Amino acid sequence: MRKYLFIAYPVWLYVIFSVPTLLISAILYTKGADILTVNSIGSMGMVVAYLKGKRKKMTQWPEISWKRIFLTTGTMLIPVVILTTSLTGKAFLYVDLTTYLINCTWTFFWVSCCEELLFREFLMIRMRKAGMPGWLTLLLPALLFSLCHRPESVSLLVQRMVLGMLLGYIFMKKENIALNVAAHWIYNIVIYTFQCTVQQVTVLYSASRAGLNVLLCLLSLLGIVVAYSINKSKFAGYI
What we know:
The protein is mostly helical. The chain has one domain. 77% of the residues lie in helices and 0% in strands. Helix 4 (66-88) runs parallel beside helix 8 (177-204), helix 4 packs antiparallel against helix 9 and helix 5 (97-129) packs antiparallel against helix 8 (177-204). It starts with 8 loop residues before the first helix and ends in a 10-residue tail after the last helix. The model has no long low-confidence stretch (mean pLDDT 90).
């Protein structure tokens, strides 16, 4: 049983960093600070703790290619920007662009890195080395990933579990954290953009336009992930 204690490591990091971050967020929220931006501090802390701690000891693991992460993210971002600008561009005239851009860049970078390094790279590799079955290696990290988001309902729990399983499947197929971080980062941007602009898009265009934009952005993201995942694809050599 002791050899399976590593499963608790991501949850332990979340507890250590999330509790003080939540307290700071509550204080700064009363002063008008954006909660997402403040919470990025906790994600950054977890990434640094993991890189300087557990991952530093895993000398057999390949180095993280930060350049590849940013290049892959940039590639995935192009169709999202084009679609969003053409379908819902006027709505951004009514959005706090400073906060929006900070969250799309700084916040979601740290969030995606944190969750992919802990729940996909660390947990899935360690579970596989411990001889756990493939279905459990896919399911358990997705469950912990969803629970650490503190879901407010069963539907949100299931939704994030499905997302976690999809990201886990991508990692199982490619074993390359760059693709995971990039896909997670862009997914967060698409959902966040919808939440920030849905009211204005509904007023300026229609509710169906907001939904169509999300659908097309996610389909473009899926298409690029599939293209990167095919071994004979032109993109495959870049990750």
